[in-house]
């Protein structure tokens, strides 16, 4: 099975990052705890673990830093231009506005408030 089962987006400022993603993706993140390390701060994107796609979380760790060059996360959406339109007002910046990827739809790339480059993907 090659489905991504989970992702972490590393952050420096959890409140700032949570506000950014909740604003851009029009969603609510929920508190998530690490039972082995209470110092870990996590806010989860909801997932029922039974559908296609992946759940994930914003994570603040002492030993991991945010920034470009790591794994790339793409959030699926109906039209990535809608979410792209919320990025700058939420404190992020557009890296590459909506563009075609041929038969596979469209992508927008942005940098979040923590310096991570993240993508949006839509069919239209």
Describe this structure in words.
By secondary structure, this protein is α/β, with parallel strands linked by helices. It has one domain: Roll (2,3-Dihydroxybiphenyl 1,2-Dioxygenase, domain 1), CATH 3.10.180.10. Helices cover 16% and strands 34% of the residues. It contains 2 helices and 8 strands. It has helices spanning 14-25, 80-87, and strands at 6-10, 30-32, 41-45, 55-60, 74-76, 93-100, 106-111, 117-122. The strands form 2 sheets. It has a 4-stranded mixed β-sheet with strand order 1-4-3-2, covered by helices on one side. It has a 4-stranded mixed β-sheet with strand order 5-8-7-6, covered by helices on one side. Helix 1 (14-25) packs antiparallel against helix 2. The longest helix is centred in the N-terminal third of the chain and has 12 residues, at 14-25. The two termini are 27 Å apart. 23% of the residues are buried.
Characterize this entry briefly.
This protein is α/β, with parallel strands linked by helices and 124 residues long. 16% of the residues lie in helices and 34% in strands. The chain has a single domain, classed as 2,3-Dihydroxybiphenyl 1,2-Dioxygenase, domain 1 (Roll).
